[in-house]
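Reopening this one. Same input as before:
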Amino acid sequence: MTRRALYILGCLLLLSSACGSGDSEQSNSEFDLIDHIDLNEAELPDAGERDVELEDAGPDATKPDSGPGGVDLGEACGDDEECNFGRCIDDPGFVGGYCSTPDACEFDDQCPEGSTCFQDGETNFCGARCEATSDCRDGYSCQESSASPFKACAPIPNTPSEGAVDGAACDSDSDCAGSYCLKDPEWPGGYCTTVDCQTYVDCARGPDEANNRCLQQPGGTNFCVRMCQRSADCREDYVCSPVGGGQGFCSPDPQADFAPEGLEDYPFDITCGLEAENNRIHIDYEIAADTTSYMITPFALDRKSIRIASTTLPDSGQIDFSGANDFQTVPALLFDYVNPTLTPPVAQMADQLQSGAHTLQVRTDSTDLCYYVLEENSPGVSIDFNIYLVGIGLSAEQAETDPNLQAMLDHFDAVYAQFGVTTGEVRYHEITGDDADAYQIVRTELDLQKLVSLSTLPEGGYDAALSANVFFVRGMQLGGGGGGAIGVSQGLPGAAALHGTPSSGVIFTSEYLGMQFQGEQGSVVNGNEFTGIVMAHEVGHYLGLFHTSEQYGQGFDPVLDTPRCTRPSDFPDNCPDINNLMFPLAGISHTELTPGQIFTLQANPLTKD
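Same output, byte for byte:
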């Protein structure tokens, strides 16, 4: 049974307890499927559109291990003896009783195979796994768990008798069962909610609306929000803003601009103006005989959603992006309107590289689709950077000789040199004025998008254009406290050589430069070296590397030779991939890559020969 990786977290690096956070539970919170979602802001963040998609769990997902005989997990019961696993839950709300296990659980692997460890802040038990409420018996609905990426049949919370449920449209408070309407235009069409909630039980949820949860905000007012897995789950003018653990909530679409300037000035061909027919666009392109890898990047100037469907190869074979190559659709899950596509993306797909005529099929209704193709004729051995300094107290001139920044870059170079990739030319830019004031502390997804959109096409022709944009900010407040994000990549992979867009770079905090702090088992961590590893991790994402493992075993990278952390209770300290550079929690010892990962790095056009 497989699960698609949580792709938003695939671009996010978190601070682990081994790297300076004193609270290990908090440090891992970005991975938790939580009932009350802790965000740092007193107001909801303006998050850009980022879809989170979960693959079908497979035909056995709803079949718990039934034991030797008697009543199965989740079925009705009158006493413990009737249940296979020795416990009948007859607490209030458990209509007709509920067979479970004797002990409470923390992870799925503490429950019978095929069942779910259900936690919601009020109760904790091994429950029958489900995909929809129709899988559950009367009195129960299919609900998210704070301890698992899978859902479970759990008692239906109290439902409102009058008014619209939370997340529904409204004009006034009287329209809402929760007695509060967030008003238009800040919340388009209005948004029903319940304020001062503590858990999901307090939210107004109808019998078919089991996905409203309590958004807890330290220092602010708690209120209920509509949960989602993709933006298509939300109303018009709303997007699914990810909060970790495979969950998102419907929030107003900030409509970040996607308007790269001066496309005619780029030192390679960018073709625009393609129009969809029957929701399809076919892109024809040629690949040279000496090409060792290439990236084709379709993007919609009108911000219409695009999804790559297939590539027809010269030998009449086909790359199916809904099959083994489905991980290559991730860029358009992050940003609906751009999808950089590397070929071959991983070593085991080397046979997908062919010379001759190709046709890429894109599903879209865009009337202004652009694309460009970048080819490499040998594996890349160096990478150039455009470093943007955002309110960190250094000018571009000072950065060239600053001992802490240069020590950080030296450590980055030492890490990548192990993989056969060295640092080439480095250009420094300082973000000043209102932009520096606005983005020196990154607080929202929209901040990330607007910040990297400040990048510009470097002068110097084709070689200069093939460079990665790196933004150093004073701090990041995207997570819920000390265990929050310390780095984010705006692509997986990013659009090589395309500058000035919401997906044109990586961002990470400079707060550890020049510092030392206590690490694992009392060791002293050099902040410059630690920041170099953060940069190495985020650049790895931008070049196309996924996290090796996500918590709960809910996702793994597509590279065959990376170790996988398959037992949820092993995360993080006992994971076999903990020292890999692409492990999802940052650590000073996380400096390893496998040959398969190095293949992907060197195939990306941003690594040059």
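So the earlier flakiness isn't reproducible anymore. For the record, The radius of gyration is 25 Å.
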